[in-house]
Design a protein that fits this description.
This protein is of the alpha+beta class. It contains five helices and five strands. A three-stranded mixed β-sheet has the order 2-3-4. A two-stranded antiparallel sheet has the order 1-5. Strand 3 (about 40-50) and strand 4 form a beta hairpin.
């Protein structure tokens, strides 16, 4: 499934995110981070991104986990559109499995413009728009 959500909702999710691992320069003292993790409905971690063949890339990909009220809002208020893209995914998987990378249809990617400086700092982004 491809799920589109409101941009304002994604910005809110980012602003409420708390790192899943302790970051001493962002959360001091450690007990502050522990309390924020316990209270937060949004967890954030940066994972290695992967190429179509599964190899790890130098860049990182953000992973966001929702629970509680954030998950309820996601399900009830924030979704704009849901598309079944099963056939497309199956086709792309066949291209990848058969090493036909030239036939893969990849999304156009660009850096997400985080306009809130505090959120950008927390996410460790070196830009704001």
């Amino acid at each position: 499934m491809a799920i589109r959500i409101k941009r304002s909702a994604f910005d809110l999710i980012l602003s409420k995110a708390v790192h899943s691992t302790y970051e001493p320069d962002l959360y001091e003292p450690r007990t502050d981070w522990q309390q924020r993790v316990a209270d937060s409905d949004v967890r954030l971690q940066w994972d290695p991104d992967h190429a179509p063949n599964g190899d790890k890339m130098d860049r990182r990909a953000v992973q966001l986990g929702l629970r509680g009220e954030a998950l309820r809002q996601f399900a009830c208020d924030w979704i704009v559109e849901i598309d079944d893209i099963s056939d497309f995914v199956r086709e792309q998987s066949e291209n990848s499995d058969n090493l036909r990378y030239d036939k893969l249809i990849m999304p156009s990617e660009r850096v997400y413009p985080v306009s809130c400086g505090e959120t950008a700092l927390k996410l460790r982004l070196d830009h704001t728009n």
